[in-house]
Design brief:
The structure is a single chain. The protein contains five helices and two strands; from the N terminus they run αααααββ. It is α+β, with helices and mostly antiparallel strands. The chain has a two-stranded antiparallel ribbon. A hairpin with a 7-residue loop joins strand 1 and strand 2. Helix 4 crosses helix 5. It starts with 20 loop residues before the first helix and ends in a 7-residue tail after the last strand. The model has no long low-confidence stretch (mean pLDDT 90).
């Protein structure tokens, strides 16, 4: 079953919309120079531009979707004792900026150092108690410095 979840939508990139990465990082180097100097918590609360969503907010809306979905799967499994527990898996599909926001907020990865390739994904072992685990990572690398994507 496929369900659309608006909480997984790509955040607006404002002035960056329609631009290629090379141009973004050259024309707006001053923006990234400032962001990379912020402590992680402050960076996650700071958007590229004032009118845009900050990575913290992007992650929180994705986390809310994941929590709802995990609870629904758990409730369905609990109501059917004959259900196959190996089928209690769900797949959340979203955009790189959403993945990066979750990796930074939930898993503490350096926000400006997350590098994603097309079709990147990661295994999020979601825990209702908040003790999430990061499983396999595909086409995502982590750095301690700014990565011009």
């Amino acid at each position: 079953e496929v369900t659309e979840a608006p909480g997984l939508r790509e955040p607006s990139l404002g002035k960056f919309e329609g631009m290629v990465k090379k141009d973004i990082y050259s024309q707006y180097a001053h923006v990234f120079d400032g962001l990379v100097k912020l402590p992680q918590e402050e960076r996650l609360a700071t958007a590229y531009f004032p009118e845009l969503e900050a990575p913290n907010d992007t992650s929180l809306r994705c986390e809310a979707v994941a929590l709802r979905a995990v609870k629904e799967v758990a409730e369905a499994a609990a109501s059917d004792p004959s259900a196959d527990p190996t089928k209690n898996t769900l797949l959340l599909v979203s955009h790189s900026k959403v993945l990066e926001a979750v990796l930074a907020r939930v898993f503490g990865k350096f926000s400006e150092g997350i590098e994603t390739e097309p079709c990147a994904f990661f295994h999020w072992r979601f825990a209702l108690d908040g003790r999430h685990e990061l499983g396999d990572v595909h086409d995502i690398s982590f750095h301690d410095c700014l990565v011009a994507q």
